[in-house]
Recover the amino acids of this structure.
C-alpha cells in the first residue's frame, strides 16, 4: 500500500476500517497517477526536508507524498523527501525564511504570506476575483503566474509550482453569518477573525466591520479553543482536516478569496543538485501540483458535508447574499487595485474571461 492510501485510510477513520468497510466515509479520491519515466542518472544522494502547515489527511500532504514517491522511484531511492506536517517546523513566514538561509529544503505556503517576496502575488488576495475553479486553474497555469514564480529568483527561494489551497470560507464560534452586517457584529466589538499574514486580508475583514488579527496557522486551533479569536477563514478541507469544527460551530460558504499554494525549494539546496535532478524535481512538482488540484477539488464539497455531519451549522449564501458581500468589499478594490496594479488585474481578468469561453 502506498503512503497515499495509508493516509486516505486514516482519513476514512479507524472505526470504519475495523468494520472492514474501507473508504465508506472517504470522498471518491482519485488514485495518484502512475509514475512514469526512466530512472535518471546517479548524481549522488539528497534527503529533502519539507515543512507544511496542514495535516496528514490534507490534499497538500497527500500530493506532497506523491511528489516524494516520484523522486524516490525515479532516482532509485537516491532522493528522499521527509515531510513534516502540522506546522511542526514553523509557519509559512518562518519556513520561507528558513529556505532563504538553507536551514530547510522545501516548504509549501499559501501565496498570501509570500507577497513580501513577489508583490504581484497579492492579486490573488483580491476578494471575488476568481469566480470558479476553471478560471483559477487557467490563471495558475498562465504565463502571468509563471512570471510570478520567476519573480522569486535571487531571493534564496525557488518557486516550483502553483496548486490549490482553495476557496476560503468563514467559520466562527459565535453565530451563523449570512450577511456582511452579521460580520459587523451584533455585539459592540464585532467578530475577531484570524487572517493570514497579509494586508489585503486584513483590509477585507476591517472593511466588513470585523476585528481581524493576523496569526500563524499553527497557533490558530488553540487561539480558537481559548476564545482568543471567534473565527477564521479557510477552505472546507482545511477546516475538516485540521479539526476546526471541534471549536467552531458555524460556517458560511462565503468563497470570498481563492488562494493558491506554491511549492518551493531553497535556492541553496537547488544549486547543490545536478541539472538532471533539478529537471526531475521541477517535473515532479508540476505533476504533484496537478494531483493536488484534483484532490482539493474532490475534497471541497465532501468536506463541507462531513462538517455538517459532525454538527457544524453551515450557511450556504444565495447569489444575493454573495452580491451583498461583494459590494461590501468594494472599498478593498478601491484601496488595493492601484497598489497591486490595474494592468495586472486586467491581465488576470482577461484570463478569467477566456477560460469561460473555452
Ligand atoms: O502549508 C500551508 C499552510 O501553512 C497555510 O498556508 C494554510 O491557508 C492557510 C492559512 O490559513 O494559513
Amino acid at each position: 500500500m502506498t503512503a497515499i492510501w495509508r493516509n486516505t485510510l486514516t482519513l476514512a477513520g479507524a472505526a470504519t476500517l475495523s468494520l472492514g468497510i474501507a473508504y465508506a466515509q472517504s470522498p471518491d479520491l482519485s488514485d495518484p497517477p502512475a509514475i512514469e519515466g526512466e530512472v535518471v542518472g546517479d548524481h549522488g544522494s539528497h534527503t529533502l526536508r519539507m515543512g507544511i502547515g496542514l495535516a496528514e489527511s490534507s490534499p497538500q500532504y497527500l500530493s506532497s507524498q506523491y511528489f516524494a514517491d516520484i523522486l524516490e522511484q525515479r532516482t532509485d531511492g537516491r532522493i528522499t523527501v521527509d515531510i513534516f506536517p502540522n506546522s511542526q517546523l514553523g509557519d509559512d513566514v518562518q519556513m520561507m525564511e528558513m529556505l532563504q538561509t538553507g536551514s530547510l529544503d522545501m516548504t509549501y505556503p499559501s501565496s498570501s504570506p509570500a507577497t513580501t517576496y513577489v508583490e504581484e502575488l497579492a492579486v490573488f488576495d483580491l476578494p471575488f476575483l476568481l469566480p470558479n475553479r476553471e478560471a483559477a486553474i487557467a490563471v495558475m497555469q498562465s504565463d502571468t503566474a509563471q512570471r510570478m514564480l520567476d519573480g522569486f529568483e535571487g531571493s534564496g527561494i525557488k518557486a516550483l509550482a502553483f496548486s490549490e489551497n482553495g476557496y476560503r470560507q468563514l467559520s466562527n464560534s459565535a453565530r451563523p453569518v449570512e450577511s456582511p452586517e452579521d460580520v459587523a457584529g451584533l455585539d459592540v466589538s464585532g467578530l475577531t477573525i484570524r487572517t493570514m499574514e497579509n494586508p489585503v486580508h486584513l483590509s477585507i475583514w476591517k472593511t466588513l466591520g470585523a476585528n481581524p488579527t493576523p496569526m500563524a496557522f499553527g497557533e490558530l486551533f488553540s487561539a480558537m479553543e481559548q476564545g482568543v479569536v471567534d473565527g477564521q477563514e479557510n477552505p472546507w478541507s482545511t477546516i475538516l482536516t485540521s479539526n476546526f469544527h471541534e471549536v467552531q460551530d458555524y460556517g458560511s460558504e462565503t468563497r470570498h478569496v481563492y488562494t493558491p499554494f506554491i511549492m518551493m525549494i531553497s535556492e541553496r539546496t537547488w544549486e547543490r543538485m545536478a541539472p538532471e535532478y533539478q529537471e526531475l524535481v521541477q517535473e515532479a512538482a508540476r505533476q504533484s501540483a496537478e494531483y493536488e488540484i484534483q484532490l482539493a477539488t474532490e475534497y471541497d464539497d465532501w468536506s463541507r458535508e462531513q462538517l455538517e455531519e459532525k454538527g457544524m451549522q453551515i450557511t450556504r449564501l444565495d447569489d444575493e447574499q454573495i452580491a451583498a458581500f461583494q459590494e461590501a468589499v468594494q472599498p478593498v478594490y478601491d484601496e488595493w487595485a492601484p497598489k497591486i496594479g490595474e494592468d495586472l488585474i486586467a491581465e488576470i481578468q482577461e484570463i478569467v474571461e477566456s477560460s469561460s469561453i473555452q
User: Anything to note?
Assistant: Residues 275-309 form the longest helix (35 residues).
